């Protein structure tokens, strides 16, 4: 009986998870072929694709293929690609000197003032305390907003390097070389733009990838002491990811599921104890910095917004400290079953097909709310309709191609590979969570390395199939 239960559970967390993600990715690809989901301030908009959208898909596809060909032909080294990305990132930081605004503006101001001044923002938004602490430390090293952007640029490069190691560990037999991987991974235009958004997205992603890297790429199976140290590293990285973005609690759950199915019960215990210790220490430190006892926004405030019919789950001005669980469930009962299915389908369709992580909103901004430290020839043209249209089409085209390749890669995953399940479970966790939470495509930014890893596996599968077909002829 126990064995049957285990087999059923193993099927759900293995094969079922694989095909759930594959269906999601196929739906995203088909959806993006039919229509475009895009964002205007706090509103989701849908429109039919135009010939220009399809032309953009074609141009970006050809650019990617040309890059693959040139890298292979010219034997371009990975270090050169990393260097070029750093140079491009530096130019972007200097030529588009966006000043902090919105949430990142509030966090930056508090950090720069040494937690003095308007700290009510952090009292209400305690999820940003850790981000503010890190920003405070970095600004003590060099009091410059530009420094924070360079930290994010370096974090992007580190994410790329760690993601390749994860890819190589998961798929050791594929033919994708490091340069091809770096090229495709670093070509993500939305991620590049996010260098300008000095907040928690990039660093949360870095620690998420770092957790997975430490868990599956460090092999200390023959040394109990080193394996315990490995779990401590995983614990610290995953806790930091959670401290930057609380949705990364899903990461902890995915790791625990992996450890359970690999029968590492002692590691589960070490992980949980270290998490409790880190949480206690962080809570104590937070209380010293912000001793106020004002009310925080409860999770029910975010959840009730997430099921708002009129706004499709976007911020709608109803954020308040007074929301309670019964308010949320009362709002939920207003839906009929059919209406609720339609609502969450439309909400998820927008979330997973928007394709830019709202980079326009957070990395470029709107002229009425953003300023630049100084003017350049790029900032003069940045908000023109043509420039914005080109930027958004490039982002969506890359995202579409990534999801297309990822669908191929996911279909060919071995569901018995317990390490690849961590990535699958992380995506599933995000799907479930953001079905109910406040809607922003920025919130799924953390998953881009996972989609890229699956996409490059898809590229490898296509290459191998083409090679087999050529050999038959």
Can you describe this structure in just a few lines?
This protein is mainly alpha-helical and 473 residues long. The chain has helices at residues 2-34, 51-74, 78-95, 102-112, 120-124, 129-141, 145-170, 178-186, 189-193, 201-217, 224-244, 249-261, 265-289, 299-306, 325-332, 337-353, 359-364, 385-411, 418-436, 448-472, and strands at residues 35-40, 43-48.
Q: How many individual helices?
A: 20
Give the strand tally. 2
Rg, nearest Å: 22 Å
Low-confidence sequence ranges = none
Mean pLDDT: 90
Tell me the span between the first and last alpha carbons.
51 Å
Describe the structure in your own words:
With 473 residues, the chain is mainly alpha-helical. It has one domain. It is built from 20 helices and two strands. The protein has helices spanning 2-34, 51-74, 78-95, 102-112, 120-124, 129-141, 145-170, 178-186, 189-193, 201-217, 224-244, 249-261, 265-289, 299-306, 325-332, 337-353, 359-364, 385-411, 418-436, 448-472; strands spanning 35-40, 43-48. Strands 1-2 form a two-stranded antiparallel ribbon. A hairpin with a 2-residue loop joins β1 (35-40) and β2 (43-48). α2 packs antiparallel against α8, α10 packs antiparallel against α11 (224-244) and α14 packs parallel to α15 (325-332).
Q: Main attributes?
A:
mainly alpha, 2 strands, two-stranded antiparallel sheet, single chain, 473 residues
Write the layout of secondary structure elements.
Layout: H1 2-34, E1 35-40, E2 43-48, H2 51-74, H3 78-95, H4 102-112, H5 120-124, H6 129-141, H7 145-170, H8 178-186, H9 189-193, H10 201-217, H11 224-244, H12 249-261, H13 265-289, H14 299-306, H15 325-332, H16 337-353, H17 359-364, H18 385-411, H19 418-436, H20 448-472
Antiparallel strand pairs: 1-2
Helix pairs in contact: 1-18, 1-19, 2-8, 2-18, 3-7, 3-8, 4-6, 7-8, 7-10, 7-20, 10-11, 11-13, 12-19, 14-15, 18-20
